[in-house]
Specification:
381 residues; alpha/beta; two-stranded antiparallel ribbon; 9 strands; disordered C terminus
Length: 381
Amino acid sequence: MALFKYNGEWLQERRGGLIGAILNSGVARNEQGSRVARRGRRFPRNFLKPRFFRWLLLLLAVLFFCVFATFVLKLLSNGNEEEKYLPLSGEVLEQVSSYDAPLTPPKSKRRKQHFPCEVGLAAAVDNILEPKNYMNFTQFSLGYVEREVNPHANSPQSRFGGYQTLNEREKSFLARNQTIHCGFVKGMSRLSSPGFELNENDKAYMNTCRVAVSSCIFGSSDFLRRPTSRLISEFSKKNVCFVMFVDEQTLSKLSSEGHTPDEKGYVGLWKIVVVRNLPYLDMRKTGKVPKFLSHRLFPSSRYSIWLDSKMRLNTDPMLIIEFFLWRMRAEYAISNHYDRHCVWEEMYLKVPLSSELIRQCQIYFRACGSMKLIDLPHVTN
């Protein structure tokens, strides 16, 4: 600021007016602005110091170590758990010893697209004829255990399959006249029930079936798929029994979806048969009863076809019987799995195995060509 001399003294010069005010305010703004700018630069300098980065990296490292240690401990605990393995026979062990295979388990396959194959069915039901005999039957009679008489069965609860001994199981494989355990075994108590209880009217109806097509839905695990009526001949509609086994829960769900049985118990071609007192808590196990014991549920049937609930019947059942049984001179036909063709591979995927048993399964993968399930078009006598 300028100085001037007045009466022998040096005094500061004060600028007044508009120019002075502008200059003075400009200086104040410049000083204040410079201070603010300095404060703004000082904050990121404190925030981005190397010490902050060191603490941040240390924290991330500790978190990563904790997660990694938890994963390793869980992996080790799962590896040390005891598992129950399936015993193998001596013949299997002898054959295993002659092979060598890596311990790497088979890689999971990607989902593939599968399309229906063409089957040379007859044109119409009128053109088929049942052969007089197959020339490969073994004549013997079977009886079934109706009530448990095994003194070793000390359990007060009845078991659907009964209390079969190992010796009885081995003898049941022989084709001879005998009485075997085959489900529906009542307990030693007169009040016990094996489960899978059916209405007496439904039992009387199933006793009259000569050809049966059956399926089941338990636990409302699926929706009802009706057979394509226009593809079923009038002969089959009158002479074939189409039976769908359901429980009360599934029946309630079907009714809510509009599939209410009529006064005769039919929904389309399906005869709805309600099963009460299911023998197993696992619905998959209960579903095996009508699947494998159709000869117990339909004692008078000559032929039976099991249909998975996820499939829809799109052809006449008599044409299926003619092609896969009569034409092939076979008593039994089973479809090949669309993706897995080896019994050992199926066991490997569904049963917890030890490393040694995994190695044995891999060995048998090489021999799966001779262990394939029977394909329907190639059923042998």
